[in-house]
Specification:
By secondary structure, the chain is of the alpha+beta class. It is built from 4 helices and 5 strands; from the N terminus they run αββαβαββα. It is globular and about 45 Å long.
């Protein structure tokens, strides 16, 4: 899968967002090492904290299906019902979840505005000095 296709999949996933409170719709597309792609969207809740971000939705779906090796994720977001006009970076909680399951040096995060307008960063660049399983002696 190309980077353009991955961003396109994130844009499509954004259409499923449930954001009645923030009205900020986010989509993500997670690329597994074997080429499988999992979409995710943000899902809000009236109590706020039980909500889930698009990135974690995609990762948890993949984990449920037994995938544990991830190559990249594309993330897009913006005001609900409007075209994407700004980059949307993963929140701190999502970065920490990525750190649990992904190699910071090689896991790529694509933050896009459109399928042909995006930037790329590694997880290490977005989460320097991250805390991971090896910090617990594992």
């Amino acid at each position: 899968m190309t980077d353009i296709e991955l961003v396109r999949a994130a844009i499509a996933a954004r259409e499923n967002a449930y954001a009645p409170y923030s009205h900020f719709a986010v989509g993500a597309a997670l690329l597994c090492a074997d080429g499988t792609v999992y979409g995710g969207c943000n899902i809000e809740n009236a109590a706020y904290s039980p909500g889930n971000c698009a990135e974690r939705t995609a990762i948890f779906r993949a984990m449920f299906d037994g995938h544990r090796d991830f190559a990249a994720i594309a993330v897009v977001g913006g005001p609900e019902g409007e075209p994407i006009s700004e980059l949307c970076a993963p929140c701190g909680v999502c970065r920490q979840v990525m750190r649990e399951f992904c190699d910071p040096a090689t896991f790529r995060i694509l933050m896009g505005i459109s399928e042909d307008s995006f930037i790329e960063a590694t997880l290490a660049e977005l989460l320097p000095h991250g805390f991971g399983p090896q910090n617990l002696g594992k």
